[in-house]
Every structure is written in C-alpha cells, then in structure tokens.
Amino acid sequence: MVGLMQLFTQIFDLAANICYWSGDEGEINKIKNEKEKL
Question: Could you tell me how far CA 35 lies from the centroid of its own chain?
C-alpha cells in the first residue's frame, strides 16, 4: 500500500511539472508573439 501511495505521488508530481512547463512555454510564446507584432 505504501508503494502505491509513492507511485501516486510521483505521478501527481510529474503531472504538475508537465502543467507547469506547458504553462511556462505558453507564456514565452505569448511574449514572442507580442514582440513580433511590434
């Protein structure tokens, strides 16, 4: 049962990291698009 909880925690952390990096890239792309408009 402990192993299952550790696995769940790792998956949750991984999903959080993916969401974080995806959001970051989205912000970078927005900035690039704004610069291209200028």
Answer: 23
Structure tokens at 31: 């900035």
Q: Residue 1, SS3?
A: coil
Whether pTM exceeds 0.70:
no
- Tell me 2's DSSP state: H
Kindly write down the DSSP assignment for every residue of 8-27, as one continuous string.
HHHHHHHHHHHHHHHHHHHH
Q: Is 15 exposed, middle or buried (0-12, 13-18, 19+ CB in 10 A)?
A: exposed
Tokens of 17: 């990291």
